[in-house]
Structure formats: C-alpha cells, structure tokens
Amino acid sequence: MSISINSLSVEFSAKSLFDNISYIINPKDRIALVGKNGAGKSTMLKIIAGLQKPTSGNVAMPRDTTVGYLPQHINVSDTSSVIDEVRSAFSHVDKMRARLDEINNELLTRTDYESDAYQELIETMTSLTDRLAIEESENFEAEIEKTLIGLGFLRSDFQRPTSEFSGGWRMRIELAKILLARPDVLLLDEPTNHLDIESIQWLENFLITKAKAVVLVSHDRAFIDNVTNRTIEISLGKIYDYSVNYSKYLVLRQERLDQQMRAYQNQQKMIQDTEDFIERFRYKATKSVQVQSRIKQLAKIERIEVDEVDTSRLNLKFPPAPRSGDYPVIADNVGKAYGNHQVFDHATFTIKRGEKVAFVGKNGEGKSTLVKCIMGEIPFTGNLKIGHNVKIGYFAQNQATLLDGEITVFDTIDRVAVGDIRTRIRDILGAFMFGGEASDKKVKVLSGGEKTRLAMIRLLLEPVNLLILDEPTNHLDMKTKDILKQAIKDFNGTVIVVSHDREFLDGLVEKVYEFGGGQVRECLGGIYEFLEKKKLASLAELERNTIRPVADKTPAASKPKEADTSSDAPASTAPAQRKLSYAEQREHEKLVRKARKKVEEAEAEISRLEQEVADIESAISAGNPPADIYDRHATATKQLENAMSLWELASMELEEISR
C-alpha cells in the first residue's frame, strides 16, 4: 500500500513553504525527513496524517490504510491506569472485523479475478487478517508488556494512574499505543526527545524489525542512521530524495550543493554581463534591438536559488571562563528522596576543573534532580560543595518554554543584556540565524528549535566557568548541534551535560556518571565505551536490565579506581547472599523447573508453527491452492511471531529466577 504525495503546495502569509512537491511512500520505506528548523518537516507529517490541509495538491492513500502519528507535543487528559490506557490501542479491532466481513462478502460476488481492483481487495484482506491475528490473540498482553518495558516502564508502573506521570512519560504511553496498533505507516515527530539511551535503542530495534513504513523527524543522528534507509531533505520549498541513510545523504548532499553553487555563480556572472551590456548600450539607437533582446532574455531566466541560510556563519563561542577552584563540584554521600521514594543515595564523586562529564541513565533515575541539587534549587541529604569562584550557567530542559511568547526575539535578548553587549545584540542574533526581520518575530511563532537557540543566546551573555546543560540538543537541528558541540569542546571551563544523544556526547565527554538503581556510578571514558561496558546493544540485555537489582549502599565513586574502570563491573553489587535453607532450595528448584517447562513448551510451539508455515508454503508453491490458503498463511505467520515473543519472555523469566 503506497502513499502518494501529489503536487503539494503550502503557503503561509504569502510565503511558500512547499512548492509543488511530489513523492511516494512505499510499504517498506523508513524515511528521515530532514532540513533546517522551520523548513516544514512537522507540517509535512501533519498533512500526511490528515491533520492539516495543503494550499493545493493532495495526499492519496489506499482505503483501509492505517496511520499512526506521534506529534512533538500532546495534550492528554486520560485518567485510567497505564496498562488500561495502552490496551485502548486495540479498540479498533471491531472496526477491522467489520471491514473484513465487507471484503469477504464482496469477494463472494465478484468474478474479475485478474483485475487490479480484485488483487487490491485480496491484499487488503491479507493485511487485515495479519493484524487481527495478533490483536485477537491471547498473547497481546505479552506484546503490551514487552513494549512498555522496552520504553522504560517498570512492571510496578503498569497499574499506576497515568495522571501521576510527567509529560515525557505520557508521551511514551502515547508512543506505546501507536506502536502496538501496528499501523501501515508510522509518522514520528522527534520520538527520541523524551526517551533515554536504553529506550532509544529498544525503539531502534522495534522500527527496524517490526514496523512497516516509517516517516520520522529526528535530530538524533545515531538514531536515524540506524533506522532509516531513505532521506528526504526539505529545502527552499522543494525536496531532494535520496535512497540512502543520513550519513550517506550528507556526502551526496554536499556534492549537490557544490554543483548548485557552481551553477548559481555561472548564472550570476551571465546576469551581470547581460546587465552591463544593457547599461552600456541602452541609449545607442544602433544597439536598441540587441538591448531589448537582452532585457527579454533576463526576464525569462529562471533564477537558481541556493539555501538562503548559510549555517556555517553560526559561530557559537562561549565567553572565556573565569578561573575557578580546582574542584568545582564535590559530592559526599548526597541523597534525595521524595516521600518514601529514594531517587538516589550515597552519591560520592568529584568533578575537576576543566572536565567535561555526562549524566546518563533512564528517565526518573535522578539526573535532573542531582542538577537541581547542585543548583541549590531543592534540599538534599549529605554534603555537596561548590568550589571557589564557581559561576554556573544553567540550561534547563524547559528553558525554551520559559521564554515570554508575547515579546519579540530582539526584546528577549535586550531585556537581559547589560553593558557594551547591548550595542551588539543585532550582530549576535544574526550569528544565530535571527538576522533581519527574524529578530522582530514574536517568540510564540518560533519553532521549537528556534526557541532553543534563543534560550542558548541568553546563556552566552554572561561569563561562567561551570556549564550545566540539561538536554540542550532537544529541537536543535543537526548543524546547530554540531556547532554547539564544538563550542563546548572549545570552552575552557567545566561542563556537565545531561543528554541521551549518543552522537552528541561522542568525543565530547571523558567521563560518564550512570544513574540507576538508586546509585550514581562513575565510568571513565566516552559514551560508546560506557555503552560497551554496559552491553546495552542487544534487546534481550535491555529487557533483563529492567528488573532492578538490590542496590549496594557503598558509594561507587569512592571505591578503588580498578573497580571503577573495570569493563566487567556489574550494574550494581548485591550484598553477600546467606545460604538458603533446604525448604527454600526446594522452592527455588520448583520455580526453576516451572520456568524451564514454559520455555520448553514455547520452543515446541515454535517448532509446530514453523512446520505449519512450511507446509502451507509448499502447498502454495505446488499450484492451485485452496482459496483460504493466504489467510491461513498470514494467521500462522503471526501466531509464529507471537510464539517467539512468548518464548522470549519465558527465557527472560527463567534467567531471572536462575540468577
């Protein structure tokens, strides 16, 4: 089922956002929509989703095509539990059954077996049968559980009311519902903004192995490189379509831009020569025919455009850092609890002057909470010392949302600038791509990336020596992220970065602090060295890690260096186990046998279904198969997939019990 975008044009305030764009989304495409902030990526997703009308053109998709759309921001008001809210993803099953009945009744009366319309009905019926096989299966609960755990929820979260969760976690619930619905096309607008590294890796694997067509907007380079096989760039109202992932697209794009620039320069020279000729001979009667010919020639020229924003001009540079003490941050047994919930405890570490470190871990494990402790915004236990002459520059996750939407870009900076800097506000705004009329825009009309850039400018106005950046790359386009990364590298002060963006952290930080299980652990080395040590690359390892081990109360960062840097160091160290009694041993053995039996039963069911699928495929190959054989094949294939899911869960349970 292909989706066709035909001659799409969109205009805002007489300005063209899209100009006669056409392309096709094929069933197995995984497309990255890229372009600078404000190019229209989110608008394109809304139009495909049917939430916004174009000025002209249309989006044509076959009947019964299902679309799952995740926007950047959502407003939810549900009051059910997490598990009940996610179960609502299957509420469309009755509609699918009704449509399948319609198709079956229609096929009984039709005789145009060779026609395209008949084949399209067969394909639709197969697709519906395929989806119903899993959604009507008793195993859909296992799929819900796997999806929620993959997105970072604990089993203890399943029965909690959704109203207890923050906006980022509510977005994960919406994402879970969309993924479980198995739509024909997934439209994802910045899906990684509210996910941690582990959940991003799980989502990557899901999209690669289970999704159908995907169109996504993301500024996480590692994520789109791993997931996509096609890149569509939106630039100057047009699109450039590349059948490659993002990294290969960058190479091809540079070649295109070089050719475009050469063509532009050649055209400009020709225009200048023509204008010189006209000006030189305008008043000579003997040349009037040639002059008029040249004037007409100029009028007919279709001017070559190059991207009006040269992002190489964005030279972000933090002011020189005033010298601070040798140790800007010293934490000694720092802890923070909310009521009975201990977010973390016994955090002991020292950050030296000039170090650049990352805070990583699942959402809710305390990264932003510890930042607030360092900032002195919330009370905590233990001792936390901020070094001599430390001046902190803080960029919070919600910094962009704190801007006053009713004032202009210029006034936003003018109100915080002091001294000589006020005479250079226009220059600074221009360097951050807010030149000309853009500086007079009201903040409320800016895109998410533009607001983030504006908030970053405010951070640059005051010299600091300790930068604390909490998710600074959310909503920034990739070019701006690269420039921000280089500016942080060049900064001669101390930096703490809270981020889930692996590409951004790679080569930037030399130390990683992992938050999890109520502890803060130090890992020397970069982000990919940390991930290698944690062995988070495989889905199975990720799902096993969702069961939190008993936390060791010994502060990890205060242990000998050999223990800190060992690649085999476990995520947490359990206290010495006492010897089990005979009765406890018998009970444990019973649980192990029961879990092993479930694994064996799942393996037997997989073998049976594999044989069933093979038999059906043999019957199809033999020719003249029964009329319902394609339905049987789709059902058996989906049952096999369900059985694999059950085997995966049973194997995880056996491993947990065995440990």
From TrEMBL:
Stretches assigned to the ABC transporter domain: 3-261, 329-542
Alphabetically ordered keywords of this record: ATP-binding, Nucleotide-binding, Repeat
Top-level taxon of origin: Bacteria
Gene Ontology molecular function: ATP binding; ATP hydrolysis activity
Transmembrane segments: none
Coiled-coil region(s): none
InterPro entries: AAA+_ATPase (IPR003593), ABC_tran_Xtn (IPR032781), ABC_transporter-like_ATP-bd (IPR003439), ABC_transporter-like_CS (IPR017871), ABCF_ATPase (IPR051309), P-loop_NTPase (IPR027417), Val-tRNA_synth_C_sf (IPR037118)
Biased composition (Low complexity): 566-576
Residue ranges of the region described as Disordered: 550-586
Similarity field: Belongs to the ABC transporter superfamily. ABCF family. YbiT subfamily.
PANTHER family associated with the record: ABC TRANSPORTER ATP-BINDING SUBUNIT, DRUG RESISTANCE ABC TRANSPORTER,ATP-BINDING PROTEIN
Name of the protein: Probable ATP-binding protein YbiT
